Amino acid sequence: MRRPACYCAFAALLMLVGCAHRGPVMVPTEPTKARAKGWTEKGDASWYGEPYHGRRTASGEIYDMHEMTAAHRSLPFGTVVRVKRRDTGAEVEVRITDRGPFIKGRIIDLSFAAAKVIHLDIDGVAPVKMKVIGKSSKASSSKKTSMPAAKACFWVQIGAFGDGANARRAQKWLADDGEKVLVMEGPDGLDRVRVGPFTNEDEAKKTQKRLRAEWPAARVVECGG
Length: 225
Hints:
The chain is of the alpha+beta class. It is built from 5 helices and 10 strands, in the order H-E-E-E-E-E-H-H-E-E-H-E-E-H-E.
């Protein structure tokens, strides 16, 4: 769908004001709630390392950012979950030892080691699906789940916005035009509006060229970048 010139000007204006500061929306703590094996949850994942490394977690354990652990707002401590990125397919198994995250939209905070397995240490925040797979003791919780065989993966990034409302408006416009679009928060706190993903760089470049008429800042980026 072609947009009128005034729309394109407004889209450009969004890009200019996209770096306006905003604070994260916080959510309260939740009571502990056991979930049956196979229970799933979708949302965003983030990770934490310093300065929490070496501190006591909500479960009483000392946090080791190099172990396969995570924080969740309500799952019982010792619950083992499989966390799978919905954009790249990378996954990792972690044991719940802490409480968090407390930012709206995020469902799990991975340890630094777990984040590295799925390249979340690069992205900062990514869309995931989490699945309860059982319970585990500390002694058996450090198992890594390898990523699927590497395959090409690309996004067309429309822009990075400091104002979440602008990012959501851009997402809606793109979705209304039939694009498959996600908003991802990067480590710098900016919301990246991305179309895709694509398993072929040429297809990503074709989409970039098509979108540049209305989104001049559109560029191709690799997944994890």
